[in-house]
């Protein structure tokens, strides 16, 4: 990763949350009039707890969940020790007879060893004693943490009731946007943050998602070692909860981490003069944490196995096909996550794309496996039918040894075989399904376009949407693999990590140190290939991949319609919205067939999903209401109302109502009282009140229904803009020679000469979407260039220019001819070993 000769900087000019002249404002409040929530010192933890309490549906639900977690830990350990030391399995399996005086029937207590024998076996087993000690220490730690959290959340409960005027009973019926709006409103009264007179939605998101934004940015820039090429398996992704925990422990909150508290990066990491020393220190710390993981591996592995056994065994027995179900991988959730996107917003978006994703993966059924599965299911079903018939005839058949086990195993075998047999009514339409998936997940590598039918695309998508069985297996293997990833892979990236946190950390007034990508500033981190041409000044190193900056900005603006973005972002949003509306209006004049809005949605029509995949995609904003989708998949330029269409891709959403969508998001208004959406809402609720009744207390269901309308509209509008931006990106790059790789090669070569760096600059690769000549590329890599919030400046002329980059899928980088290149050498001490690592092309 490249390095810039730059110092950590304070962000003021491009961030307009504070009124002019009030950036360093400290509001004085008389001592007697201070509220209990005046000047909360750690606003990060405070807002996180406010959000967590809302997501856990109140204090009582959260308290009960925490108590059961403690009880669950005790149960798992105690039950395991009991099964290992206090059960006579010879009696249980009828290998040893028990003499009874009153009855010959063996009971379950007969298989339990006496208390003294059980205690003696436990005392004599050193390994069991060790496990009990470790478990006891861990449980006491959890208990202390539980007591502390209860005290903290009791204060949050009081904040909800007294400051926000929300009772715990009604809290599940309030959306987070409503809670957030009230927090912003009471800032003027309570002065929660004394460094700013007013809070904004982005301030709250930054504090809740400070560290997650860094993680999303590191995944986007391919900085974390989570992609590997294995001899037999090929390209694989390994990113588990244990590995994620260690990353966060190292970077953010563990002892010796890069942050001195929740909101401030340590001063030494803000300067570039001692980057090599800091990299060595970080490398040593990663080594020790990796060794600690290696030593604790047996204990963690045993816990993972026991917890997985107790958690999934009953589910597998009840629903054997559950292991064949799919879920979004942890890597997929970070790759697909927008900057400043809360957990519930992400999961809602991915859940809406789940059905289409499952249908897409099910399109790729192996004909060979299908033939084998059909025949195996036939044989197993025949034997199972005979056993069931014999059992019905005489139930004593179940007393025969292994009959019940055979019935269970045969049932599991049949269920597994059925998962390999495709639905006979399924139509192969991968391109249409992939377009529907894109409408919800918003991110997709360029080379998937037009290649949805290929197994390579399917395998790459499977890394984002994996089998539940694969997820469980990865979590079980995590204690063994994680130490080696830390020791042998993450340590080599220490210098890149140090450079990343210095170059991409800014100080936001009233918020603290945040990831600069989270500012969603197209001028600083925009990509020319994603409608930011002429608006961005970002170099290749500063550009977010896959349109992350532009899509995140649109998502945040749509989700938070009252947010006032900076001037550059406002211009980008307005321009994009104007283009979408203009091309939609062009459809009324019969010229829609050539514009991206039509192209991005017309392909949604398929024989297998005639209505659910279309579902009036263009019926979101009122200006798009004139585009009507006919039964045959054509778009008729008929002027109709919004009420005649459902929301975009609504049938794939878990929330299905008869309501329609509200007006344009900047105005954040609800439909008129005579609008069909309101009429439908009244019919569903049986109330004559307007759908605007969100939190008046007259009807909690009405408030929830109205919130669903707003949420559905925001989801629809974001889907439209995501499809449009991808179509514009594809049309812009069409005709260029595309060179796509799946990821950037891991490289830690950080000691090359300045001459080699300049030679690499002369062979700077041409962008697949915005090609540059070798002369231009070489000029763009002068050693004297400096970074100032994403700009590359010429030290002679003082002018700024944007550098262009090839489009890379999944956050990867690709370069031609296997030629390594550097960004600018660091003019600190002039030594060769201070240069950043090379970036190589992956073949």
What key attributes describe this structure?
disordered C terminus, three-stranded mixed beta sheet, disordered N terminus, globular, golgi apparatus, lipid transport, ubl conjugation, three-stranded antiparallel beta sheet, glycoprotein, mainly alpha, endosome, 843 residues
Describe the secondary structure blueprint for this structure:
Layout: E1 9-11, H1 43-55, H2 59-85, H3 89-92, H4 115-124, H5 126-163, H6 176-190, H7 201-208, H8 210-220, E2 227-230, E3 234-237, H9 241-253, E4 259-261, E5 264-265, H10 275-295, H11 297-318, E6 326-328, H12 330-335, H13 343-352, H14 354-362, H15 367-393, H16 403-418, H17 430-441, H18 455-462, E7 465-467, H19 468-490, H20 494-503, E8 505-508, E9 512-515, H21 522-525, H22 528-532, H23 548-559, H24 567-586, H25 596-602, E10 628-629, E11 635-636, H26 676-685, H27 700-733, H28 754-762, H29 774-780, E12 786-788, E13 791-793, E14 800-801
Parallel strand pairs: 1-8
Antiparallel strand pairs: 2-3, 4-5, 6-7, 8-9, 10-11, 12-13, 13-14
